[in-house]
Task: inverse folding
């Protein structure tokens, strides 16, 4: 546009623009792709993050959000959300508890407003697989500090969690707490694999309660079996005592060898951790369905005091909370960090003061936080239940003509070398049953995903849809069975690019800038006839003479040949040759 205006100014061509249409955008509510865990345990709370975007709302209005079971049209969750005015976009959250196991399809919709014309973008879909087994947690703590007392009570109160506590400083007559009490750390993989998550408190890994063989067993539990591991720092031993042990690999932060947990004097000043953008999006720190309300509750939590100093996060780790003033070489000092080790998830908390969050709020916020921590560390859809692959796409909605990037993740590190370098993915129209594939009906398309490099635990490929619609991508390679996939299929939507629909309002300001830049005028429809009549006639008569040389035309050649032929015939006839 800028180049065209420069050319018009250079040639002294004024632009007369005509204002047509309203500059006020029409009212529209759009549901963007939702966020939900693909696999949950039966009885767990399924949290559905719903990003909403609005247009044309000068003042906030209430919108009714609903999650509907697509099989029986039953509303499983609903809430009213305020959107518009100063908050054109909001991230809301709805939650519900599945009542049975299986794979379920849900429709997330915003009930259209009375004056909303476009309604096809008010709906998104989600798919959740519900497995039956409950969450099993092993918590190992060194001594009965405050964090231990309130954390174990929070987990024991949660009915969907089976809980074992190993308090190392307890005497022999002490009855270990939990729904499944134990008296020692698991000694065999079979014993350890009964759990989904292992939490370490302030324990000394060199204290004799865990052997090097058990440490390596824990590494295998996380890296190969997909178990979760979390560590809560403490003043005595954690995390500095992990340095030089195999378990240091399970920390998403780098250990500071100069920090031994103690500070000089009594800590009298508290601090409020700063939430990072990743922390705002994390379900760990979601204390209320509404994002703004959740942030308000977090900012109102009591201050923390003690914290462990580290050298910062490891590459690939995600920092959710930071210290407001302390820094490392790489940035602010991390307080809450998550990461990955092989197929398993990692968690590190650099403070043991979350028990203070119970002040003024009671058990709700504190318990909600810790229950979400262990749920996020658990891997119901990973290798821990025998599923070692995950099919996913970079998005759920595409414009027609865009390539769909498809990834097949190898969650089990043992598959990196054993799995084929290529696999086939089938594309089926949304609504086709799985039985259709068994009956021999051809899919819409087939394409191949391949390994980008030999040691990358992922296969990638791109499919370009040939028409808009809703599709399901299904792995179809012989090496892939349904019992090894964390999600059997991925649903996507392909839409025609709707540039006019993205901004349907008239841009009167741009029309005025175009006219002003070239010396023209902006006209309304009722001024069109009078305005165009005032436009000076700058037309120039251009001669349209056509000059064509004759010496090389066909006609000249034919005439010349005819004359020569007649002369030759006449000379021949009258014996003039």
Result:
């Amino acid at each position: 546009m800028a180049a065209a205006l420069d050319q018009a100014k250079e040639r002294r061509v004024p632009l007369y623009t005509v204002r047509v249409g309203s500059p006020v955008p029409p009212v529209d509510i759009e549901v963007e792709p939702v966020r939900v865990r693909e696999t949950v345990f039966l009885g767990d709370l399924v949290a559905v993050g719903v990003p909403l975007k609005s247009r044309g709302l000068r003042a906030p209005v209430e919108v009714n959000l609903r999650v509907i079971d697509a099989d029986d049209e039953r509303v499983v969750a609903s809430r009213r959300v305020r959107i518009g005015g100063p908050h054109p976009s909001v991230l809301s959250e709805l939650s519900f508890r599945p009542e049975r196991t299986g794979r379920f399809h849900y429709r997330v919709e915003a009930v259209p407003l009375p004056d909303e014309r476009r309604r096809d973008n008010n709906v998104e879909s989600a798919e959740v697989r519900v497995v039956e087994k409950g969450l099993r947690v092993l918590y190992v703590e060194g001594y009965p500090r405050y964090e231990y007392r309130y954390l174990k009570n929070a987990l024991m109160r949660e009915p969907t969690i089976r809980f074992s506590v190993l308090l190392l400083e307890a005497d022999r007559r002490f009855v270990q707490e939990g729904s499944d009490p134990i008296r020692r750390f698991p000694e065999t993989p079979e014993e350890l694999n009964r759990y989904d998550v292992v939490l370490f408190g302030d324990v000394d890994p060199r204290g004799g309660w865990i052997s090097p063989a058990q440490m390596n067993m824990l590494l295998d539990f996380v890296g190969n079996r997909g178990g979760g591991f979390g560590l809560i720092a403490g003043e005595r031993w954690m995390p500095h005592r992990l340095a030089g042990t195999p378990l240091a690999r399970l920390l998403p932060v780098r250990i500071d060898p100069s920090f031994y947990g103690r500070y000089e004097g009594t800590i009298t000043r508290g601090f409020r951790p700063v939430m990072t953008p990743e922390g705002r999006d994390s379900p760990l720190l979601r204390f209320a369905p509404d994002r703004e309300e959740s942030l308000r509750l977090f900012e109102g939590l009591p201050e923390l005091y003690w914290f462990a100093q580290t050298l910062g996060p490891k590459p690939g780790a995600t920092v959710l909370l930071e210290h407001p003033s302390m820094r490392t070489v790489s940035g602010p000092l991390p307080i809450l960090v998550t990461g990955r080790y092989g197929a398993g998830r990692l968690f590190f908390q650099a403070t043991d003061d979350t028990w203070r969050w119970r002040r003024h709020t009671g058990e709700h916020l504190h318990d909600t936080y810790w229950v979400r921590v262990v749920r996020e560390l658990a891997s119901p859809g990973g290798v821990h239940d025998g599923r070692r692959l995950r099919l996913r796409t970079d998005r759920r909605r595409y414009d027609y003509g865009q390539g769909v990037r498809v990834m097949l993740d190898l969650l089990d590190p043992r598959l990196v070398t054993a799995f084929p370098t290529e696999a086939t993915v089938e594309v089926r129209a949304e609504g086709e049953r799985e039985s259709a594939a068994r009956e021999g009906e051809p899919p819409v398309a087939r394409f191949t995903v391949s390994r980008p490099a030999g040691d990358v635990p992922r296969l990638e490929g791109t499919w370009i849809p040939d028409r808009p619609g809703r599709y399901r991508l299904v792995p179809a390679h012989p090496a892939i069975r349904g019992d090894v996939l964390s999600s059997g299929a991925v649903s996507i939507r392909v839409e025609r690019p709707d540039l006019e629909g993205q901004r349907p309002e008239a841009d009167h300001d741009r029309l005025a800038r175009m006219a002003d830049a070239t010396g023209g005028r902006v006209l309304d429809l009722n001024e069109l006839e009078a305005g165009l009549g005032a436009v000076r006639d700058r037309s120039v008569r251009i001669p349209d003479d056509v000059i064509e040389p004759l010496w090389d035309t066909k006609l000249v050649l034919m005439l010349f040949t005819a004359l020569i032929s007649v002369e030759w015939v006449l000379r021949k006839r009258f014996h003039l040759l």
